[in-house]
Amino acid sequence: MNILSFSASHHDLDLDLLEMLGSVGPGLARDVVAPAPGIVVPPAGAVVLATCNRVEVYVEADDAAEATARVATVVGAATGLPRDEVTASLTRRTGVDAARHLLRVASGLESMVVGEREIAGQVRRAAVRARELGTSTPALDLLFEEASRTSRRVEAATGLGAVGRSVVGVGLDLAGENLPPWRQVRAVLVGTGSYAGAAFAALRSRGVVDVRVHSRSGRAEGFAHARGGLAVVGDGLVDAVAAADLVVSCSGRVGHVLDAAGGASARERATARAGRRAREPDPTVRPLVILDLALRRDVEAAVGDVEGVLLLDLATIGAHAPAAGPRPVAHAESLVEEGVAGLSGRELRRRVDAAVKDEALALTAAAEREAATAGVDARAARRDAYARRHAALLAAKAAAAHRLTH
């Protein structure tokens, strides 16, 4: 298969460099397949997978060297990184190795928290987005369909993901060590994308009632209303943070949502409110836990230096991610290999069918002509003509399969 993958993840790079690559979005696929100077034959198709801890580009291309150069150029233009640095940062895989990698990714085997389930939805949405952009191809569609199929088999057969293993879950476990009982927690969620939806659901599942939603996109009100939360309107984020025990941020947008000045201001307001409650039974200022799940850092690192703030980011979560048991992982890996084998067979059949398409049409037309000129026994003549057409088509497919595999 003429599939290549270019990937950067928490396995290969430190999060600072990965953050720089994180400005890559699904629309980059259009630039990858567009004609460009120096590229004789641009890639036929491209799919971009960008998550909180990985950036991956999958392409179908006949010329691996040209595809590599094109991806490096386009990613460099999107991130501002030199092309040589992009090339060094992206791990290139080809053919079966690229397919195996995607199936492992979709099954959660390459995740920061092994077995997490959010990645399966992200892989599926990446493929849908590529089809919407017109940048996918039948081969890429087949690959991503197999990735989703294998992911479902892994979840059903191994139990990985069945106990809620996820980056969000591990982050909330860490945050919970420094919070009041969950039903008493006042939470602010920053973001309204699919990852924010997963975070909102995780908060609710732990019993958090008070969830305020903020988004610079203007979608906070609709997002919050659909889930039973409250929207933080306008410039009310710092005030909302001042009243919160927990902030979960996963907006994925460029630039800090909360900088050091905003964090300090929120803590000052929280202190002032505690002073006004001095006669209440518990007038103390609660500590503020901030869980930054965004690859491009929604929260400025210096916020963690503000007194009374505990900042947990992806690096912290990665360091505390629980290990999966060896048996379920080994079973998952065997299912991935089965998926790769099945994909190779389906891809070969697809290529064979494409190779003999014109010949199949010609054989069908010939069989129809022969049947049309038959004499008295037209039914028997038609049957015999199509039997010969079937035998000829099988021979053509066998010859095409031999050409494609030798």
Mind explaining what this structure looks like?
There is one protein chain. This protein is α/β, with parallel strands linked by helices and 406 residues long. It has 16 helices and 10 strands. A 6-stranded parallel sheet has the order 7-6-5-8-9-10. A 4-stranded antiparallel sheet has the order 2-3-1-4, with helices on both faces. It starts with a strand and ends with a helix.
**H/E series:** EHHEEHHEHHHHEHEHEHEHEEHHHH
Principal-axis shape equals elongated
Helix content: 40-55%
The first-to-last residue Cα distance is 13 Å
At a glance:
This protein is an alpha/beta fold and 406 residues long.
Topology of helices and strands:
Elements: E1 3-9, H1 15-21, H2 28-33, E2 45-51, E3 54-60, H3 64-79, H4 83-89, E4 91-94, H5 95-106, H6 118-133, H7 138-158, H8 167-176, E5 186-190, H9 194-205, E6 210-214, H10 220-227, E7 230-231, H11 237-242, E8 246-249, H12 260-276, E9 288-292, E10 309-312, H13 314-320, H14 326-355, H15 357-372, H16 378-405
Parallel strand pairs: 5-6, 5-8, 6-7, 8-9, 9-10
Antiparallel strand pairs: 1-3, 1-4, 2-3
Which short descriptors sum up this protein?
10 strands, 406 residues, 12% strand, 6-stranded parallel sheet, alpha/beta, 16 helices
